[in-house]
Design a protein that fits this description.
The chain is built from three helices and ten strands. With 174 residues, the protein is an alpha/beta fold. The strands form four sheets. Strands 5, 6, 7 and 8 form a four-stranded mixed β-sheet that branches. Strands 1-2 form a two-stranded antiparallel ribbon. Strand 1 (33-37) and strand 2 (40-44) form a beta hairpin.
């Protein structure tokens, strides 16, 4: 069968481009998050990571803060965008629209009112990859909870970007 790499970076920039803009555009090619840990930059690309640890009530030493759903203004149910069409030599690597990603579930949650965001993936030359990144973008906008907590030393092994499983019955995380 066909094999397409999950992510590739096919990006060029002008010499006078701002370094921060270059890094941002490169991160978009892999739905990446760049963190600084122990004196080094760590790149986490967009794919599922199994939890590295499970925390429960016994691991906590302080209060828990749970922030719920983002405002309607910061969430959307459709992602439109551009990528660089590199499918063939005749495409001339020109900007092209990818087929939008729309969620019927999110549209229903929004009472049928379409809310779209436009993204530009100037370093992506594969249509499937552009749509994959758009889907991750859409899914992230609907992450409902942010949990902040203070733990015992058992969580010291965690670094920014790690996935954590929570078992907190009091809050319904079983």
């Amino acid at each position: 069968g066909d094999f397409t790499k999950r992510y590739t970076c096919n990006y060029s920039f002008l010499q006078n481009s701002k370094p921060a803009d270059i890094i941002e555009d490169i991160l978009k090619t892999c739905y990446g998050k760049l963190t600084y840990v122990n004196g080094q930059f760590v790149l986490n690309v967009g794919y599922y990571r199994a939890p590295v640890i499970t925390l429960n009530e016994d691991d906590l030493i302080g209060s828990i803060s749970i922030t719920t759903k983002p405002s309607q203004a910061s969430s959307y149910n459709r992602v439109n965008g551009l990528y660089v069409d590199g499918a063939s030599y005749t495409s001339s690597f020109q900007a092209a629209d990818f087929v939008p990603i729309t969620s019927a579930t999110y549209l229903a949650e929004d009472n049928g009112i379409e809310s779209a965001v436009d993204i530009e993936l100037s370093g992506v030359t594969d249509h499937s990859t552009a749509r994959r990144i758009a889907k991750l973008n859409l899914l992230d906008t609907r992450q409902d909870l942010v949990v902040q907590l203070t733990t015992k030393i058992s969580a010291l092994q965690l670094i920014a970007g790690d996935t954590v499983a929570l078992t907190l019955s009091r809050y319904g995380f079983d």
